[in-house]
Write a structure and sequence with these properties.
CATH class of the largest domain: Mainly Beta
Shape: globular
């Protein structure tokens, strides 16, 4: 009997597999508040991290998420407390729910308060300290589930200034104006269609687009919200602003994995049903209403967390008798990066690969 593994699965003539969508779910404000209270009352952990993942019932290990590519974590730092340093190759965006504190990200200290949003780029050392008199509560969103599934999630906690993995390494010498080895490597177009050959150095010395920790204070963002809320009735787009990080370039992200948007929809406003391969998670800041997802109704209110759009689920949102604002997080930049972002802006329009094909138009001009 041979010990050689034969890895072949015959798929000749096989039809595409029907995809299994995760179900939409709501985590209520009341349940979130109870979990926050539980974390507040825990003994302080050795690393200072009082944290609870919010896990979808269809999630499986490794990589427990609220959506397949996205984990959502409740974090609490009590007054006078701080956390150990952390470095990891997942990226994050976070929103302050209550209290106040300082997020130290790389060389920047970001003082945050209620509904402020900030990002933490991959591999930047970060920590948190409470600077107020009340517990500091925040939600964090990261792409760790993807990296956990791939078994490549690098993370290390530590005290001091130097991460453990770097303590026995030789720092890279400053380049200054010295030419790069890449400059000596082949870069040659070999066909009229644009095909190239590149030498090895192009793989290990990619041009840098600096990824910075950025801060979107809610006090400043809120000043712009009336301008989208006041768009004429009949507007068929979403009334929101993207919290844009220029390092993400055409991917229009807040991080390289996610965009975050903050919306302001007037009372009794209904969205046009649409769908996209990116998943969407809504945390409602104010107001109430309901969403229709694949024909099922989900009623929500301020403080609820909703997986409002599992990938490729047809959905629409409807505000109630008050103005509605939400923080929406989607893995849109991730999908653009791997050319998998398909989008159908309205159910009677074609399916388009955004970023690879010309996109959709709203009716803003006609209004």
């Amino acid at each position: 009997m041979s010990d050689i593994y034969k890895p072949f699965v015959d798929v000749s003539g096989a039809a595409p597999r029907e995809q299994t969508k995760w179900s939409s779910i709501i985590v209520s404000k009341e349940d979130i508040d109870l979990e926050i209270e539980r974390l507040i009352n825990l003994p302080k952990p050795a690393n200072g991290r009082r944290a609870a993942l919010i896990v979808h019932p269809q999630a499986t290990l490794p990589g427990l998420g609220f959506a397949p590519s996205t984990d959502v974590t409740i974090n609490v730092v009590n007054p006078g407390e701080s956390t150990l340093n952390l470095r990891k190759n997942s990226n994050m965006l976070e929103i302050c729910l209550s209290g106040q504190g300082v997020a130290v990200v790389g060389k920047r200290e970001i003082a945050v308060q209620k509904w402020d949003v900030w990002n933490t780029p991959a591999m930047q050392v970060h920590s948190y300290r409470n600077t107020g008199q009340q517990p500091w509560v925040r939600l964090s969103y990261s792409n760790a589930p993807v990296l956990e599934k791939l078994e490549v999630h690098f993370a290390e906690e530590f005290e001091g200034d130097v991460p453990p993995a770097d303590r026995n390494t030789t720092p890279a010498a400053p380049r200054g104006d010295v030419s790069r080895a890449r400059d000596l490597a082949l870069r040659e177009q070999i066909g009229d269609d644009g095909a190239h050959l590149l030498g090895y150095e192009w793989l290990i010395d990619i041009d840098v687009v600096e990824s910075k920790p950025l801060h979107w204070p809610y006090a400043k963002v809120a000043g712009y919200l009336p301008s989208v809320e006041d768009l004429a009735k009949g507007y068929n787009g979403r009334r929101l602003f993207v919290l844009y990080n220029p390092a993400t370039e055409r991917r229009n992200g807040t991080t390289h994995s996610f965009f975050a948007t903050i919306s302001s929809s007037p009372p009794n406003n209904s969205h046009v049903p649409h769908r996209h391969s990116s998943s969407a998670i809504n945390y409602y800041l104010r107001g109430h209403g309901h969403s229709m997802v694949e024909g099922r109704r989900f009623d929500w209110k301020a403080g609820d967390l909703l997986l409002s759009a599992p990938g490729w689920a047809m959905h629409a949102h409807n505000s109630g008798s008050e103005t509605v604002s939400s923080l929406t997080v989607q893995d849109h930049p991730f999908h653009i990066g791997i050319e998998s972002l398909i989008w159908q802006e309205r159910s009677y329009e074609p399916i388009i690969a955004l970023g690879s094909q010309p996109g959709f138009e709203s009716n803003r001009g006609s209004l």
